[in-house]
Amino acid sequence: MSNVASNAADLVETYGDQADLNVEQIEAQIQNLVDEYLLPVGEATRSVENTICDNAGIERSETPTNDTEAETNYDAFDPTPVEEITEEGTWHDLAVEVVQLWSPNSDSMAQVGLLGDETDKIKFTIWEGTEGIPELEEGQTYHIQNVVADEYEGRYSVKFTKNSQVTVAEDEEIDIQSSETAHEGAIVAINTGSGLIKRCPDDDCTRVVQNGRCAEHGPVEGEFDLRIKAVIDNGETAQDVVFDQEATEAATSMDLEKAKEMAMDALDTTVVADEIRAEVLGKYVEIRGPVFGQYLLVNDATFCTGADDDVVAALEDLVSDDADISADATPAETAA
Question: Would the keyword Nucleotidyltransferase turn up in this protein's UniProt record (predicted)?
Answer without folding.
Answer: no
